[in-house]
Specification:
Blueprint (H helix, E strand, L loop, with lengths): L11 E9 L5 E10 L4 E5 L6 H9 L6 E6 L11 E4 L11 H5 L1 H5 L4 H14 L15 H13 L5 E5 L7 H18 L2 E5 L3 H7 L2 E6 L4 E7 L14 H17 L3
Parallel strand pairs: 3-7, 3-8, 5-6, 6-7
Antiparallel strand pairs: 1-2, 1-4, 8-9
Helix pairs in contact: 4-5, 7-8
């Protein structure tokens, strides 16, 4: 007699997933991958290998062609309330103030004004934007805009955060600082995170696991468990262990670029 397992289902599960577009181009092929609750998983790989596609499949923005994606045991369409998506562009509405942009998700859910005001205030405080709540996007730095985008994603209390190269357009110092702030929030909020980047150092610094995708079509080539202590700080980047993991990931990434 086989006993039923009481183990929780993975937070995210790709089972034999292929995504094919109308022009017959295959973005990803036969992806099988599980992500457990609380993991921070980063996708690395060549341009066009399907990193962003995987995030779109989880969010329900794009349907799979073959295989299945499950989010908390549900279809992506059924799990949308559990998921927030942060894109490379902050996509703030220019005619709305910071606090109005952050509260947009709750407005769309028709949340009560008092509840929305309290929640927005907490999110602005969390990301350090309370002093600029009344400003418009044109009055913000690039780093502030991205923090506002993060606050907007958090206001609906997601379990899963999907981040598609959110810091790519920022200078290195701002990017490093926001990486550290993101990990502070990750520790406090206990999300599951799927992150896309082209930066090996950023991937290693942020992640519990790095997944390297091979190109044309995208498929899992390597998985690397990141064994760095928490919390991760500026000193982490100066450590020998960090340099070793960056070197390991870089070598594996170079391998997927070989013809």
């Amino acid at each position: 007699m086989v006993k039923e397992s009481n183990a929780p289902a993975p937070e995210i599960a790709f089972e034999g997933v292929t995504k094919r577009y109308r022009n017959a181009a295959v973005a990803v092929e036969s992806i099988t991958l599980t992500v457990e609750r609380g993991e921070f998983v980063t996708f690395l790989g060549p341009s066009g290998c399907g990193k962003s596609t995987l995030l779109k499949l989880v969010s329900g923005l794009s349907p799979v062609s073959e295989g299945t994606v499950r989010v908390n045991g549900m279809t992506p369409e059924s799990a949308r309330d559990h998921v927030s998506f942060i894109f490379q562009d902050a996509t703030l509405l220019p005619w709305r103030t910071v606090e109005q942009n952050v509260g947009l998700g709750m407005e769309l859910e028709h949340a009560a004004s008092s509840a929305r005001k309290d929640r927005v205030a907490k999110m602005l405080e969390l990301v350090g934007l309370t002093p600029v709540a009344k400003r418009y996007p044109r009055q913000l730095s690039g780093g502030m805009k991205m923090r506002a985008s993060i606050a907007r994603a958090l206001v609906t209390k997601p379990r899963i955060l999907l981040m598609d190269e959110p810091f790519a357009a920022l200078d290195e110092m701002t990017r490093d600082r926001l990486n550290e702030e993101l990990l502070r929030l990750y520790a406090e909020q206990e999300w599951t995170v799927l992150f896309v980047t082209h930066s090996v150092a950023e991937a290693v610094f942020l992640s519990t696991r790095v997944v390297i995708l091979a190109a044309r079509p995208g498929r899992v080539a390597h998985e690397i468990k990141i064994n760095l202590p928490w919390p991760r700080t500026a000193e982490t980047r100066e450590s020998e262990a960090f340099e070793e993991q960056v070197t390991q990931a870089s070598r594996l990434l170079r391998g997927v670029y070989q013809p």
